[in-house]
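[recover] target loaded
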């Protein structure tokens, strides 16, 4: 630093001091600079700051900047500093871009509409959640879809105070994502569903698809499905599409005639009835139905395969011997009297009842947090709670972790190395989170019934996924 030049320049400028400039100016030092106790080169030096250091000036008087050093007043010369331009403040305004914008109670297109907004209405957006902006409507929280609102960012004029705004998350990617090809997709809107030429509620409507129309879904874009229709890619709102397991066609070459669907069909086999994949005693056994179980009979086999009923479990067709199905009443098998009489149903009997009850709901949707078919379905622990309580074994409602770690529920823990048997309660871990997370009931030494997405069904323990997740068993 040229100290002589600094002294002369500083003294000359002090003599012509011109008042105070705007506060809180950011400065960067262009050389090593002394910090002094007063605005004069004869004042004591507090310390020396290195070139490139950034400081904040409280005010400027003449050729000196007043700063704070260790919370105390200090001064540096303006000769060896330069100001850092302040970034222009910005604000975002939100304006409806289409007429009749629905204001909804919740962030979903199936939610109740609280009213409509005209085009070019300014909105006070509180925050952005997914594809929705949260606003206040009639003094209550409400939601507007982001595609119906244009967000404009502008620079705030110097000297004005920028309004408080919530940063807006960049719009989601428009890339088409893969969908589960093992599922069947169909329209779930009684008034019909609009198919649009773009994945937006402002997209042009190509045509309206009737309720229950089966869709050829080729991908997903945010909250929309890309659908192939008339050789074109069109888009439908995924909230109005039901995705379910594809129905498995009946065994090939089997002739079936209709049956009276108004009659109740029940299993009349005291030792249980095998359910087979084809109408033959040599075909694979899928599961076994308990005595007295109700079955959904879809037809009766004829010709060379006569003597069997075709039944439906979930979305798949199976076969049971007609001679073990009745449309009348079913009497319980005679059992020798027990002395003294048991105060409760034997455990094996409870689990047979639980299995029989559970099989009535095969194909029922998976519903998180539900333990009753009244809610439209079950989650995995809710399914166990419902079937056991209905079968006569009273157990409190808890989650999988509670059923596994509390020995007061469902008995003692049994090793996963144990050979499972029908009626065992099976536990899995680390399926969607750490620890015990899934539960079901064994139908034999391999198959188990469980509430899993998308619906209540039957899986095999021998499948690699379930083998790797196996935690252990409990037996009543």
């Amino acid at each position: 630093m040229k100290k002589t030049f600094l002294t002369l320049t500083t003294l000359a400028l002090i003599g012509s001091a011109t008042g105070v400039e705007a506060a809180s100016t950011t400065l960067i030092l262009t050389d090593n600079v002394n910090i002094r106790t007063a605005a004069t080169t004869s004042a004591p030096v507090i310390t020396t700051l290195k070139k490139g250091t950034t400081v904040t000036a409280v005010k400027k008087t003449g050729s000196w900047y007043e700063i704070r050093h260790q919370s105390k007043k200090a001064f540096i010369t303006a000769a060896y500093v330069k100001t850092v331009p302040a970034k222009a403040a910005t604000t975002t305004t939100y304006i409806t871009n289409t007429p009749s914008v629905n204001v909804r109670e919740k962030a979903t297109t199936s939610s109740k509409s609280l009213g409509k907004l005209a085009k070019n209405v300014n909105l006070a957006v509180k925050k952005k959640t997914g594809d929705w902006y949260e606003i206040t409507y009639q003094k209550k929280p409400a939601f507007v879809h982001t595609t119906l609102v244009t967000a404009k960012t502008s620079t705030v004029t110097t000297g004005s105070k920028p309004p408080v705004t919530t940063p807006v998350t960049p719009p989601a990617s428009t890339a088409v994502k893969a969908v589960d090809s093992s599922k069947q997709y169909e329209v779930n809107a009684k008034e019909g569903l609009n198919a649009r030429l773009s994945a937006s509620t402002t997209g042009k409507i190509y045509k309206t698809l009737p309720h229950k129309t089966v869709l050829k879904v080729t991908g997903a874009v945010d909250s929309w499905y890309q659908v192939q229709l008339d050789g074109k890619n069109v888009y439908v709102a995924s909230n109005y599409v039901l995705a379910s397991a594809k129905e498995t066609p009946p065994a090939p070459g089997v002739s079936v005639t209709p049956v009276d669907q108004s009659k109740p069909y029940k299993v009349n086999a005291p030792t249980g009835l095998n359910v087979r994949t084809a109408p033959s005693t040599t075909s694979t056994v899928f599961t076994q139905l308990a005595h007295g179980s109700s079955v959904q009979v879809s037809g009766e086999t004829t010709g060379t395969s006569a003597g069997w009923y075709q039944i439906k479990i979930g979305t798949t067709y199976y076969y049971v011997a007609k001679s073990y199905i009745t449309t009348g009443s079913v009497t319980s098998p005679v059992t020798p009297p027990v002395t003294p009489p048991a105060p409760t149903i034997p455990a094996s009997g409870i689990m047979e009842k639980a299995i029989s009850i559970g099989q009535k709901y095969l194909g029922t949707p998976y519903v998180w947090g539900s333990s009753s078919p009244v809610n439209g379905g079950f989650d995995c622990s809710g399914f166990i709670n419902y079937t056991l309580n209905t079968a006569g074994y009273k157990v409190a409602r808890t989650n999988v972790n509670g059923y596994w770690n509390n020995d007061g529920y469902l008995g003692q823990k049994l090793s996963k190395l144990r050979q499972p048997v029908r009626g065992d309660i099976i536990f899995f871990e680390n399926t969607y989170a750490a620890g015990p997370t899934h539960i079901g009931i064994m139908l034999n030494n391999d198959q188990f019934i469980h509430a899993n997405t998308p619906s209540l069904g039957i899986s095999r323990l021998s499948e690699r996924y379930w083998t790797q997740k196996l935690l252990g068993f409990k037996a009543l």
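[recover] notes: The radius of gyration is 37 Å.
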